[in-house]
Write a structure and sequence with these properties.
protein transport; 10 helices; single chain; membrane insertase activity
Length: about 280
């Protein structure tokens, strides 16, 4: 789990460097592979869509964002299914894992810790638990697509010169930036449905990095990007709710585990108040 978290953090930090302009602006390098085969086609497609909606580039960005998210949705659903399956296995193995973790905390020597950790690996093997099976491949596959769309919006002079709703697509807008950040914050809380309190603590830093990053970049980036993030975040929130409904009912033990941990936390809180 820790290795996976490190990989995810590295990917997000890499994206942050790209989005804040630390990488080369594709508009200055139009002959590269990335620009020729990914960025330029996206730019052309946005213009193509805009031609059907009265050259309204705001609507064109919304439509293109929804189309992209819909195309990669099957991959996300497959990943969510794997995550739910892994959570189900963790719920079944939880009593054994908790007992081993308690002994691991009491271990006083490295040799004892190593022995107990081997027992933990044996439990993982017994229940076919491998957190890395959920992996980062879906995220890595999506990154080039989403980054190409990002640069297509960023480098288009046609988009930058248009106004949509109350903001200019080529200028930053504080209100839209805050909306985009709040949308991704809401999406994070939706994604945590079904996770145990312990898992939520482990995922908290990673989960909050995305809305903070988007809010930070949107304050200075063209509003077209904040619009893209806001629409994409709403789609992701809906997609996440759909996956929870589709797969969580197939694994009722996850709900049982979550309820048990909530009850345990309530008991702990009551004991603290009594003291």
């Amino acid at each position: 789990m820790k290795k996976k978290n490190i990989i995810l953090i590295s990917v997000l930090l890499g994206a942050l460097l790209l989005l804040t302009g630390c990488s080369m602006d594709p508009s200055q390098n139009t002959d590269g592979f990335f620009s020729t085969y990914l960025v330029q086609p996206f730019t052309s497609f946005i213009m193509f869509v805009a031609s059907f909606v009265g050259d309204n580039y705001g609507v064109a960005i919304i439509i293109t964002t929804l189309l992209i998210r819909a195309l990669i949705m099957p991959l996300n659903l497959r990943t969510a299914k794997a995550q739910m399956g892994m959570q189900s296995k963790m719920a079944v193995a939880k009593p054994e894992i908790d007992e081993i973790q308690a002994r691991l905390k009491r271990a006083t020597s490295k040799e004892e810790q190593a022995t107990i950790q081997k027992e933990m690996m044996a439990v993982y093997s017994k229940y076919n638990i491998n957190p890395m099976q959920m992996g980062c491949l879906p995220l890595l596959i999506q990154m080039p697509i989403l980054m190409a769309f990002y640069y297509a919006i960023r480098g288009s002079s046609e988009i930058a010169s248009h106004t949509f709703l109350w903001f200019n697509l080529g200028s930053s807008d504080m209100v839209l930036a805050i909306i985009a950040g709040l949308v991704y914050l809401a999406q994070y809380f939706v994604s945590m449905i079904g996770y145990s309190p312990e898992q939520k603590k482990q995922m908290k830093i990673i989960g909050l990095m995305s809305p903070i990053m988007i809010l930070f970049v949107s304050f200075t980036a063209p509003s077209a990007l904040a619009l893209y993030w806001a629409v994409g975040g709403l789609f992701l929130a809906g997609q996440t709710l759909l996956t929870k409904k589709l797969y969580m009912n197939k694994h009722p033990e996850i709900k049982v585990m979550e309820q048990e941990e909530k009850e345990f936390e309530q008991i702990v809180e009551e004991q603290k108040k009594e003291k």
